[in-house]
Amino acid sequence: MNLGTKMGKQTIVYDDSVYIKSFYSSVGKLEGEGPLGKCFDVVYKDEYIEAKNWEQAENNLLKNTVTGAFAKAELSCDDMDYVFSGDLLNQCTGSSFALKDMCIPYYGLYGACSTMAESMSLGSIMVDAGYGQNVLAVTSSHFCSSEKQYRFPLEYGGIRTPSAQWTVTGSGAVILSPDKSHICLDSITTGKMVDLGVTDNANMGAAMAPAAADCILAHLRDLELKPADYDCIVTGDLGIVGSTLVNEIIQKQGSDISDVHMDCGSMIFDPNTQDTASGGSGCGCSASVFCGHFCRELIQGNIKKMLLVCTGALMSPTTYQLGETVVGIAHAVGLSYRE
Amino acid sequence: MNLGTKMGKQTIVYDDSVYIKSFYSSVGKLEGEGPLGKCFDVVYKDEYIEAKNWEQAENNLLKNTVTGAFAKAELSCDDMDYVFSGDLLNQCTGSSFALKDMCIPYYGLYGACSTMAESMSLGSIMVDAGYGQNVLAVTSSHFCSSEKQYRFPLEYGGIRTPSAQWTVTGSGAVILSPDKSHICLDSITTGKMVDLGVTDNANMGAAMAPAAADCILAHLRDLELKPADYDCIVTGDLGIVGSTLVNEIIQKQGSDISDVHMDCGSMIFDPNTQDTASGGSGCGCSASVFCGHFCRELIQGNIKKMLLVCTGALMSPTTYQLGETVVGIAHAVGLSYRE
Questions:
Q1: Does residue A35 share a domain with residue A108?
Q2: Among B177, B208, B242, residue at a domain's last position
Q3: Measured between CB atoms, does A2 come within 8 Å of chain B?
Q4: Of A99, A108, A248, B235, which has the fewest beta carbons less than 10 angstroms from its beta carbon?
């Protein structure tokens, strides 16, 4: 038993105690046609995913992703000690209805689009403390269930502003374990909420960028690291607008991540050909890009050390209608390649 | 460092590593007029709680409860290592807007009305693993914000069925710490989702009772305990209908908790004079009754050993309209008096 060490105010560093045993990703048609299309385990041919409505489609998306992660590790529901999951649907029913029949001790989360890092963070503590041999961390989002809930009926064909983002139809799942593998989960940095007063819900990137910067700077400060100590610092879904902002904010604080910064939301679509405005968003964006692209790069040793910083906008249509701000949050997970 | 022990599939037993340093409860007017009215730290004179709308009222309720818990322990935001919180509002904005300016590393949860036990469970793991000296666990619900979101406009004056429950306007907060106090957090049992096919969203007690029974039986089995080993086994908000059911289900499994069973939802209102049908519900029900009534009984040694089993119904108005079932979950926390 090698327990980790709390470093600074927000970061825990593990002592080789948590690894990724299995990872799996699933996406919709548009994501499959994007620049990362070839790296996902499953690309669905349409948004229905064998269901009669968008909510059930998202349930199937998440459930099938979990089943895929089980199959890759040759494990089943019974082998899981805990599952941590959440999503964007009201009352997180994407997760609960997808996972309800699997009979795994369940912790429901709400971290908006930061959920993949939140679930991996809390899951890693269970593994580190010796309470879980196999802990599942998973999340999803679905373009159609999100549009219906947050914006307009699909049939309305609403026009987007250039700063708006496109909710990814996607899901990613990892199984965390103390069993050694090629991907080690080294550290977690728990984010604080940051509210700089953004009220435009069509500019989530601006709302989330300050929280992403705060979390990245906290991580570097707590561990006394420089940006160049990472091959890449990967934000979740800041999109093109938010990615510019996070770099500016960090530069104003005297640091510079621009040489190593990447953003899942800016990577998953081609803005020139796919009409996705500022890029991808949703819990499933960083989840599918992490499990689809970055886990493969890590396992092959193409990336030796990365920081995943999933970003969330904590708001609802109700708070928006009441004129409230959009509150940002970001959680970070440090990962490295092991031979 | 005395790390706990995983017992059976779902339970962790701590080795004197987690205590409740501070607890605080706040409720609305109706709850203050109920049988437990005198035990809450604050009873608000109306449902507005110094706000202009019900969502802000719930934010103030949760924020003031946290501030109260800080004051009792002579601590501030800066002393908190983590906060775990969630609520019933879409996208959990009750928690995020209440806590956003406190700058505490934040994990958002969605466990429906099981949130108090979920937040205490995850918070206790942080304390047990040595990653938190002061960890805040808190939740809230508000009758008016819930009615507006889940049911009808208040002005409509909808009539309730006898099995329906009344969402408690209330909040409860605890600060968990390794520092010894009179209330020790001994164990946690993480619940599995249970879906027996209940589709009546005016009978949450029936939907949650099977999950409560499953969690209680898992706890007793994992720790090889009998119901009589506890002074009381306290369910969260099964209400009058669900309380009958949980006892029946457990009896069918060859056990009997009826001598020690209590239910926060059945205790908080007087059904004969308060017109609250089957009793109280909402995250704030078990949170306020635990922090208001049971923590006082524990600290005085009137209760020596109790099991708190917070119960949640995982559904949304959307899943109800789609004809989906209401999925139940329950998480349990074992507590004892220490001299």
A1: yes
A2: B177
A3: no
A4: A248
What pLDDT, on a 0 to 100 scale, did the predictor assign at position B157? 84
Return the SS3 of B338: coil
Integer CA distances (angstroms), B299 to A241, B16, B118, in order: 53, 16, 22
Taking the Cβ of residue B327 and every Cβ of chain A, the question of whether any pair is shorter than 8 Å is answered with: yes
Domain termination site, one of A160, A177, A194 = A177
Kindly identify which residue of chain A lies nearest to residue B215, measuring between CA atoms.
A105
DSSP class of B296 = H
Q: In chain A, which residues have their Cβ closer than 8 Å to the Cβ of B103?
A: 192-193
Q: Are residues A201 and A301 in the same domain?
A: yes
Q: How many domains does chain B have?
A: 2
| Together in a domain, B197 and B320 | yes
Chain B neighbors of A85, CB-CB under 8 A? none
Task: Take residue B313 and report the two structure tokens written for it.
Answer: 């119904």
Question: What is the C-alpha to C-alpha distance for residues B264 and B239, in angstroms, rounded to an integer?
Answer: 8
A161 and A265, same domain (yes or no)? no
Q: Is there a single domain that holds both residue A40 and residue A104? A: yes
Q: How many CB contacts within 8 angstroms connect chain A with chain B?
A: 177
Q: Would you say residue A324 lies in a domain?
A: yes
Residue A7 resides in a domain = no
Give yes or no: residues A49 and A75 share one domain.
yes
Give dist(CA A159, CA A167) in Å, integer.
14
Query: Residue ranges of the alpha helices (H) in A48-101?
Result: 54-73, 93-99
Please state, for a pLDDT cut of 70, what percent of chain A lies above it.
99
Averaged pLDDT for residues B182-197: 98
Q: Is B72 helix (H, G, I), strand (E, B) or coil?
A: helix
* B1: its two tokens: 């460092």
Q: What is the spatial distance between Cα B63 and Cα B138, in angstroms, rounded to a whole number?
A: 10
Flag whether residue A107 sits within 8 Å of chain B, measured between CB atoms: yes
Please judge whether B9 and A110 are an interchain contact, meaning their C-beta atoms are less than 8 angstroms apart: no
Q: A289 vs chain B: nearest CA distance in angstroms?
A: 22
Q: Which tens digit of pLDDT belongs to each residue from A113-163?
A: 999 999 999 999 999 999 999 999 999 999 999 999 998 888 888 888 999
Chain A within 8 Å of B6 (Cβ-Cβ)?
Answer: yes
Q: For residue B293, what is the domain's CATH number?
A: 3.40.47.40
Kindly state the average pLDDT of the residues A254-270. Answer: 98
- Asked if residue B203 is part of any domain, the answer here is yes
Interface test with A, best of B131, B149, B333 (most A CBs within 10 A): B131
Asked if residue B252 and residue B159 are part of one domain, the reply reads no
Report CA Rg, chain B. 18
What range does the domain containing B251 cover? Answer: 183-337
Is the pLDDT confidence value at B309 over 90?
yes
The interface residues of chain A toward chain B in range 259-318, judged by CB-CB distance below 8 A, are 314-318
What number is the ipTM of this complex?
Answer: 0.98
Q: Is A214 on the interface with B (CB under 8 A)?
A: no
Question: B249-292, pLDDT tens digit by residue?
Answer: 999 999 999 999 999 999 999 999 999 999 999 999 999 999 99
Q: Is A150 on the interface with B (CB under 8 A)?
A: no
